[in-house]
Amino acid sequence: MFREPLKRREPKQSIKKTKMDSVVLLGIPYYVILTFLIVIPLGLILLYALTERVNDMFLTFSLKYFVQFAQEPLFIKAMVDSIYLAIVTTIVALMIGYPTAFIISKKKARTQALMILILTAPMWVNMLLRTMALKQLFEMFLPDLLGGNFSIVTGMVYVFLPFMVLPIYTVLSKIDPKLYEAAHDLGANRFETFMRVTLPLSITGVLSGITMVLLPAATTLVIPKYLGGGRYLIGNLIEDRFLKNGNWGYGSAIAIILSVIIMIMVYLTKKLDKNPEVDHD
């Protein structure tokens, strides 16, 4: 009898290379979108902010727009007010969003799906329509508060709350129930279990929610315009410099300053996550 020839095994390096090639190939659409929608626009913003035209022909390096912004007290106040309102909005959204996400994660699967649907349903409606509807409610029941910080924060919490709840809920729903059983077996009560198990394991979702609320809240245009009585915040300032005044360099410089401040805040927030990453390999 003749034995069948043994199949030749491909070396591991060849298999890994094939997988890497597949990953790179599948990632091409993402790289294209990343390049045209993020890298190129950011490059243009940096170009406009850090250069100045000489004789309408040549570009030269300049920090002129940054200096101008630093010399305008009203613009700096708009920046401070925007960041302050964004921080307050984020804190309020976290105080409401975490308990909401926690309650949803403890329900049955069908109830969870229904509650998430109810939470995200307003996002299907145009943001301008939601803001105008909230404005009408203020005009009917709380007219004296319309135009102040309270109405602006209320509007931003209403609009951005789902962005806080969803990442927290996603993390909470993935916590292994056996961890709660183990904590109970070790004598921990509900509060101790929450502080020692639930909260530390959900920090990643909390930080994601903070980032997703803080960024749009600091630059929103519609809410301050209609709920703040035309309040002039940093988003409106950037819009005016780009669209009304046509000063793209100044608008780009302001956008960069705001981005740097927000990135520093996000970095400091991320430092709070001291949980070691789990290796799933």
Short description:
This protein is mainly α.
Question: Number of helical runs?
Answer: 12
Q: Report on the biggest sheet.
A: 2 strands, antiparallel
Architecture per CATH nomenclature, i.e. the level-2 architecture of the largest domain: Orthogonal Bundle
Class by SSE composition: mainly alpha
Shape estimate? globular
User: Into which percent range does the helicity of residues fall?
Assistant: over 70%
Keyphrases for this structure?
281 residues; mainly alpha; MetI-like fold; 2 domains; two-stranded antiparallel ribbon; disordered C terminus
Account of the protein in words:
By secondary structure, the chain is mainly alpha-helical. It folds into 2 domains: 22-62, no CATH class; 72-270, MetI-like fold, CATH 1.10.3720. The chain has 12 helices and 2 strands, in the order ααββαααααααααα. Strands 1-2 form a two-stranded antiparallel sheet. Strand 1 and strand 2 form a beta hairpin. Helix 4 (73-105) packs parallel to helix 7 (149-173), helix 7 (149-173) crosses helix 9 and helix 9 (190-219) runs antiparallel to helix 12 (248-270). It starts with 11 loop residues before the first helix and ends in an 11-residue tail after the last helix. The relative contact order is 0.12. Residues 276-281 have low confidence and may be disordered.
